[in-house]
Design a protein that fits this description.
Organism: Bacteroides stercorirosoris
Keywords: ATP-binding, Nucleotide-binding, Phosphoprotein, Transcription, Transcription regulation
Largest sheet: 5 strands, parallel
GO biological process, one term: regulation of DNA-templated transcription
Strand order of the largest sheet: 2-1-3-6-7
CATH architecture of the largest domain: 3-Layer(aba) Sandwich
Helix content: 40-55%
Number of domains: 3
GO molecular function: ATP binding; sequence-specific DNA binding
Radius of gyration: 32 Å
Strand content: 5-15%
Shape: extended
CATH topology of the largest domain: Rossmann fold
Distance between the termini: 63 Å
Protein name: Sigma-54-dependent Fis family transcriptional regulator
Length: 447
C-alpha cells in the first residue's frame, strides 16, 4: 500500500485531505510544519508528499529541496491558496512533481496523486535496478586472488573516482571491458550512460559516422541527422576498445575532444560540445605503433594519463579454478543444467593450458563443456579434444611407458578423432579399422 505524507498547518485541511487519500486506498501520515514533515519522512518513508507552500517554520518550495535531498524517490506535490507563477517555477526546479492551487484544483488532486505514486514506484524500481547493475559491474565482480590482478584492480579503483582518461592494456580476452565498466560504475558518472565501441569493427568512414554522427545529406545514404556515440555518452563514459586500430585521420578528432570537449560532425559547420570520460583499451604496443607512424604520439600521451595493465591468464594460473567454478555456476543457471561435481582432473587440465585467448577462451571452453556434458559431473571427457589430447600427451611424456606401442596408438587415435571433429565413423575409415574396434579402443584408452 502506498503512503502519502500530508503537510499543512491547518488541521481541518489535513483531515480533509487525509480522508480523501484513505478513501482511495492510501495509507496516510501527517505533519503540521517543515520540521515535523522531515521527521515523518524519516519514520514513515512515504511515497508522495502533499505540502502546503506557507508553513509556520518555513516555505514549502524550500521544503521540496530538503525532501528530495533526504529521500530522492519521494514525489512532492505543492498546494497553495494563492497561485504564484515564480513559486511554481522554482518548485519544479527544486524537484516538485507538480504545483497546484487549493480549491480551484481540488478535482485534480486524486489523479495527480495517482500519477505521483506511479512515478515514485518507478523511481524505486530504477534505484533497485541501478544497484543491481552497479553490483554486477563493480570491482567485486572481478574474480581473482593473484597479486598481479589485485594490483591492477587497486590501480583502477584509485583512478575510478577521478575524471581522467584511462588506458587499459593487455592481451585479447583479459577482461578490459569488464574493468572499464567497473571504473564507470564506481565513478561519479555511474548514473549516466556507458557506451562501448570496438574500433576494429568498422571501416574508417563508418566508424567516424558512428562515433561523431553526421548531418542529413552529408553523404549518400545520410537521409537524416544522426547522433554519434559521443553524444549518446554525454555526461557519462565512452569505452574505445582496440584504440590501436583507429584510422590515423580519426585520431586527430579524438585528440580534439580530449583537449577541448568539442568535435565537428560529418557535414556540419558548427562544433558539438560533449562532457565525456574516455577509457581506451588496446592489445597493441602503442609506442611501437607510434614509431611505425600508425598512432599519434600526442594522442597516446593524452589517453595514457593513467595506465592499467591487465595480466594474461597464464600469469595468474592460481585464479583458473576460481574462474572455472564461477563460469560453471553461471552457465548451469543459463542452460538449466544441474552440475553437482567438477572432477579434480578437469580442473588440473584447465590449469595446464596456455590460454592464448585468456579469460574469454576459458569461458567459452566451460560453456562448451556444460553443453556436451551428459551427467551431473564435469570430467575431462567433456573438454574439447585438443585440450584432452594435450593433457594425455603431457601425461605420456611424464610416464616411463610413453614409448610403448599402446601409448603411441592412443595418441594417434586421439589425433585422428580431432581431425574428424569427433566423427567416429570417419575416424574408423581413415584408421582402416572397424567401427566396433574403434569404440573398444576409445573406451580402453579413455580417449
Amino acid at each position: 500500500m502506498s503512503k502519502i505524507l500530508i503537510v499543512d498547518d491547518e488541521m481541518q485541511i489535513r483531515t480533509l485531505l487525509a480522508r480523501m487519500m484513505e478513501l482511495e486506498g492510501y495509507e496516510v501520515c501527517q505533519a503540521g510544519d517543515c520540521r515535523a514533515a522531515l521527521k515523518q519522512l524519516e519514520l514513515q518513508s512515504p511515497d508522495v508528499a502533499l505540502c502546503d507552500v506557507f508553513l509556520p517554520d518555513g516555505n514549502g518550495v524550500d521544503l521540496v529541496l530538503a525532501i528530495k535531498k533526504a529521500a530522492p524517490n519521494v514525489e512532492v506535490i505543492l498546494l497553495t491558496a494563492h497561485g504564484n507563477i515564480p513559486d511554481g517555477v522554482q518548485a519544479i526546479k527544486n524537484g516538485a512533481f507538480d504545483y497546484i492551487t487549493k480549491g480551484d484544483d481540488n478535482n485534480k488532486i486524486i489523479p495527480l496523486v495517482s500519477r505521483a505514486v506511479e512515478k515514485a514506484a518507478m523511481n524505486a524500481r530504477l534505484e533497485k535496478l541501478e544497484k543491481k547493475v552497479g553490483q554486477a559491474y563493480s570491482f567485486d565482480s572481478i574474480l581473482g586472488e593473484s597479486k598481479s590482478l589485485k594490483d591492477a584492480v587497486s590501480l583502477a579503483q584509485k583512478v575510478a573516482v577521478t575524471d581522467v582518461p584511462v588506458l587499459l592494456t593487455g592481451e585479447t580476452g583479459t577482461g578490459k571491458e569488464v574493468f572499464a565498466q567497473a571504473i564507470h560504475y564506481s565513478s561519479k558518472r555511474a548514473r549516466q550512460n556507458f557506451v562501448a565501441v570496438n574500433c576494429s569493427s568498422f571501416s574508417k568512414e563508418l566508424l567516424e559516422s558512428e562515433m561523431f554522427g553526421h548531418k542529413a545529406g552529408s553523404f549518400t545514404g545520410a537521409l537524416k541527422d544522426k547522433k554519434g556515440l559521443f553524444e549518446e555518452a554525454n555526461n557519462g563514459t565512452i569505452f574505445l576498445d582496440e584504440i590501436g586500430e583507429m584510422a590515423f585521420e580519426l585520431q586527430a578528432k579524438l585528440l580534439r575532444i580530449l583537449e577541448t570537449g568539442e568535435y565537428i560532425k560529418i557535414g556540419d559547420t558548427k562544433p558539438t560540445r560533449v562532457n565525456v570520460r574516455i577509457i581506451a583499451a588496446t592489445n597493441r604496443n602503442l609506442p611501437e605503433e607510434i614509431a611505425k607512424g600508425r598512432f599519434r604520439e600526442d594522442l597516446f600521451y593524452r589517453l595514457s594519463v593513467f595506465q592499467v595493465h591487465l595480466p594474461p591468464l597464464r600469469e595468474r594460473a592460481g585464479d583458473i579454478r576460481l574462474l572455472a567454478k564461477a563460469f560453471v555456476k553461471n552457465f548451469s543457471a543459463q542452460l538449466a543444467r544441474s552440475i553437482t561435481e567438477i572432477t579434480p582432473e578437469f580442473l588440473t587440465t584447465l590449469e595446464l593450458q596456455p590460454w592464448k585467448g585468456n579469460i574469454r577462451e576459458l569461458r567459452n571452453v566451460i560453456e562448451r563443456s556444460l553443453i556436451v556434458c551428459e551427467g551431473e559431473q564435469l570430467t575431462i571427457a567433456d573438454l574439447p579434444l585438443d585440450i584432452q589430447n594435450a593433457h594425455y600427451e603431457q601425461s605420456d611424456e611424464e610416464t616411463p611407458g610413453s614409448f610403448e606401442l599402446s601409448a603411441m596408438e592412443r595418441r594417434h587415435i586421439a589425433r585422428v578423432l580431432e581431425y574428424t571433429k569427433g566423427n567416429k565413423t570417419e575416424a574408423a575409415r581413415l584408421l582402416k579399422i572397424g567401427l566396433t574396434t574403434l569404440y573398444r579402443k576409445v573406451e580402453e584408452y579413455k580417449i
